[in-house]
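User: I'll paste a sequence; please echo it back and then give the predicted structure.

Assistant: Echoing your sequence first, then the prediction.
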Amino acid sequence: MLYRLLGEANASPRLMIGVARGRGTVAGHAWVLVDGRPVGDSDDVIQKYEVMTGFEADGRITSVAS
């Protein structure tokens, strides 16, 4: 929802999707970036996740560097 609202406000958000693997578990998380900074999440939280994919404000898949 935040991604869509920020897109409508022309904030150029990026929706990122990642996973974190633990001992016998996998956790997923999605977060929104504006100007390369997370909105509503701290850097500490998102650093736990390996980015799998992301979407630009116009819906195109964003390039994610490994």
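The two ends are 27 Å apart (CA to CA). The beta strands are 14-22, 25-34, 37-39, 50-55.
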